[in-house]
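Field reference: sequence -> structure
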Amino acid sequence: MSGLLTNPLTGGAGARLLDQLELAPGMRVLDVGCGPGRLSVPAAERVAPGGRVVALDLQAAMLAKLSKRATARGVQNIVTLQAPIESATLEPESFDRALLAWVLGEIPDRAAALQKIFASLKPGGVLSVTETLTDPHYQRLSTVVQLAEAAGFQRGQYYRGWLGYTLHLAKPSHAP
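Structure field:
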């Protein structure tokens, strides 16, 4: 599904996703299921200077492609992490934004994944979930909302697209 990010028929979905997140220099971003870095690299460019992207994926080959892409563009503020999100070691309340772009349905324990992301976001942080109907692991909006609310998230901005949607989920500012 990462090809959707650069496919001209999707109208620059990757740039639009990052625009919606209002990334700024100094922010910390978690890209879960980052693949070859189609979002990680431009996100890292947007949060520089002083910001950082943690790019997490199960596959070493994807992380190697990401590293090659980042090096080619002179991006040095990405840290790669090979692990399943459910058991990844992430610093609590350390991220301003998190991304789950076309990946939630591939995670075996989606509830545990969302709880892990929730714990890693700063109070007021935002998780962006993007789903597309053409994805064989497509997650319905109602499913995502139910899982997210159970993890403690509050529903935020909703962006409907031609074949899918992006939903922002906020960690309440008063979250423990």
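Note: Residues 1-12 have pLDDT under 50 and may be disordered.
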